[in-house]
Amino acid sequence: MNITTNVGSISFETPLMLASGYITEKPDFFLKASSFGCAGMVTRSLKEHVPSERSRVPAPRYSILGESSMLNCEWGNEHPWTQWRDGWAEKVRNTKKPLIISLSGRDIEGCSHLIDAFSGLADGFEINVSCSHSGALHGNLNLDFTHLHKLFGTIRSRTRLPIWLKLSYSPFVVEMAVEGEKIGADAIVCTNSVGPGMLIDIATGLPKVGMKGGAGGLTGPAIFPIALRSVYEISRAVDIPVVGVGGISSADDVIQMMMAGACAVQLYTCPALKGPKVFAEILQGMRAFLASHPEFDSLEKIVGHSHDKSAVHRFEAPLPKVVEEKCTGCGICIPSCAFDAISLSGSTGKVIAVIHDNCISCNACLGVCPSGLKAIATTYTL
Ligand SMILES: Cc1cc2nc3c(=O)[nH]c(=O)nc-3n(C[C@H](O)[C@H](O)[C@H](O)COP(=O)(O)O)c2cc1C
């Protein structure tokens, strides 16, 4: 099945792109990911002048939470932007897949110069006003409507190429997106890292990432629900395309993002921690989903599918059922039930039983049942 998608005038062979960050400082990671179905890349946010205090990156740069979320304090660029102009852009363009140049929106003049420099070498631009830990240090542009106006007032007329606006979740993210659309953004990309956040090493009392003040940007599965909700709200408020990013690590996540309204997605932390092959695994999962859902005979039909599905509160509370042939009696669900509604029973003493009088249909037991089993199911009619 055809899984091409468009973000405005830019076509992608699959809906999966590599998001901006350290692994897109150079083209190499993308060149590998591209052979696994990654359909385009966004460079690390380039700056015309990297301030001298940013020539060294504070360490540690990353702290991993759980298995796959991350707090980072990356900053600056370790290579001059001219490397992209003088050869790296061509390497990506030789793959025939779109290259989006990400530019830091903080230095408006520098951003304009780089737009001029790249207008013949890129398929579009993504303007970053949303790095959460840099916001902690230098002022939060993600909430700055005045800066946004000045920025787009200066850069919009410099190029005919699409300019995407990259935002982070904030309580004002929808308003920023609507403003971005009004002043000429061709797409909204959401979300950058969320935060700033902080972690402390209790052995030393030191913050777990090395930036002054200890702030870091949170990425990976921990932010997926926030990213999804932002995409859902933004895509209902604007007419320009929305690109979903934040915590995506599976085909299920991609489909959710598209149902929430994204026409394409970007991934960073998952491929950064698990390698470029994750793109192939995700695409395989998407193809399996599409094969078993003939009603979605194009990706377009998935985009925004959930928009009209939350107009009312849902009060239906069906009781969970144990799928006896799948249940191994591992008992993981028992402590997840705060209401003593689950117990071991059955002739083997293994199968889990749900005590319906106690059950409040909270779905915690379904959630903790190991993903390979999913031996508890609830059916909704809504
Ligand atoms: C180490 C690191 C560096 C990043 N650098 C940039 C950057 O230069 N520009 C940018 O717009 N986003 C940057 N991001 C944010 C990612 O592009 C992405 O929006 C964010 O990580 C959420 O997606 P994920 O959960 O798939 O990682 C960076 C993220 C990480 C983890």
Could you please say which CATH topology of the largest domain applies here? TIM Barrel
Neighbour order of strands in the largest sheet = 3-14-13-10-9-8-7-4
| Count of domain modules | 2
Tally the helices: 12
CATH class of the largest domain: Alpha Beta
Distance between the termini: 29 Å
**Main beta sheet strand tally, sense and closure:** 8 strands, parallel
Order of helices and strands: EEEHEEEHEHEHHEHEEEHEHEHHHEEEHE
CATH architecture call of the largest domain = Alpha-Beta Barrel
Ligand inventory reads: flavin mononucleotide
* Beta-strand residue percentage: 15-25%
Number of DSSP-assigned strands? 18
Overall pLDDT level? 94
Q: Secondary-structure blueprint of this entry?
A:
Elements: E1 5-7, E2 10-12, E3 16-18, H1 28-34, E4 41-42, E5 62-65, E6 69-72, H2 82-93, E7 99-104, H3 108-118, E8 124-128, H4 132-138, H5 145-155, E9 163-167, H6 173-182, E10 187-190, E11 194-197, E12 216-219, H7 224-237, E13 242-245, H8 251-260, E14 264-267, H9 269-274, H10 278-291, H11 299-302, E15 321-322, E16 342-345, E17 351-354, H12 364-368, E18 376-377
Parallel strand pairs: 3-14, 4-7, 7-8, 8-9, 9-10, 10-13, 13-14
Antiparallel strand pairs: 1-2, 5-6, 6-12, 11-12, 15-18, 16-17
Bound molecules: flavin mononucleotide (FMN).
